Amino acid sequence: MSNTSGSTLNFGGLPAEFSDWRTARAVIIPVPYEGTTSYRSGTKEGPLAILLASRQLELYDEELSSETYRVGIATLPELYPSRRDLQAPIAQTYQVVADTLAHGKFPVVLGGEHSISAGSIQAAHEKYPDLSVLQIDAHADLRAAYDDTPQSHASVMRRVCEFKVPVTQVGIRSLSAEEMAFWRKENPSTIFWARDLRGEADEARRIVATLTPRVFLTIDVDGFDPSVIPATGTPEPGGLGWYQVLQILRELFSQREVVAADLLELAPIPGLIAPDFTCAKLIYKIIGYKFSASLQH
Ligand SMILES: [Mn+2]
């Protein structure tokens, strides 16, 4: 089928039959919020770039032998959170994710900066008290505050740890002395350091084994190596490869119930379309893995 039809900007350019919210099992929630960015800016352009790139996706997944869009993928209008009150974007994201979960749908939030994950994860945790979090990221994001801002993108996992949710962090290769001291003293998370990852099958099993039966998946695109995704605000060398991440996700979705996901911090570089498309394909993969059992005929 052609996926350039459809009058509204929905993920995949799907026709109404497969993008109607009422029947969709997955819901894309674009949140182009950027309030506390610390290095290169532009992540507020991330959701639109991903939605535009998604129109070029091949809708047949050759790995899963399925047409993932048949589960129904709705796209909500972009959420434009207030930038004056730094808690407002987190609260607004919380509300939309809570509503989506209450309707039994699978929320996928597109950022925007990582701080909004605190709202998404809070909503998932309230519905599923046994929740744990799998974070793919270059940064630990465990600062108590950054620039005197506790709602900073650099503090988001510190906020999440305060919910008493088990957190597993994968691909970490940058944190401050203060974060390291906090991590050693309080043991708030399980960290799989980027320098120790080899992409072996056993690694994915060891990562997923740390998680509870229900999982929130949060992916900061800087967890990937900059050769895969250079378009991000704070790139770090030595990150994960495309197939390395897919291997972890396949293991995750086959062994655990992933209840919601988000993808943050794409800051598109004009003229460089590969990172935008990579993010769109990753979202499609995540929805494919989530619903692969129900897609088999
Ligand atoms: Mn990061």
Oligomeric state of this protein: single chain
Mean pLDDT: 94
Number of helices: 9
How would you describe the shape?
globular
Low-confidence stretches: 1-7
Report strand %.
15-25%
Portion of residues within helices: 25-40%
Annotated CATH homologous superfamily:
Ureohydrolase domain
Bound molecules: manganese (II) ion
Helix-strand topology string: HEHEEEHEHEHEHEHEHEH
Q: What is the CATH first-level class name?
A: Alpha Beta
Cα-to-Cα separation, first versus last residue: 19 Å
Structural commentary:
This protein is α/β, with parallel strands linked by helices. It has a single domain, classed as Ureohydrolase domain (Arginase, Chain A, 3-Layer(aba) Sandwich), CATH 3.40.800.10. The protein is built from nine helices and ten strands. The chain has helices at residues 16-19, 46-54, 88-102, 117-127, 156-162, 177-186, 201-209, 242-255, 274-295; strands at residues 26-31, 60-61, 66-67, 73-75, 106-111, 131-136, 167-172, 190-193, 214-220, 257-264. Helix 4 packs parallel to helix 5 (156-162) and helix 7 (201-209) packs across helix 8 (242-255). The radius of gyration is 18 Å and the shape is globular. It binds manganese (II) ion. Manganese (II) ion is lined by residues 137-139, 220, 222, 265.
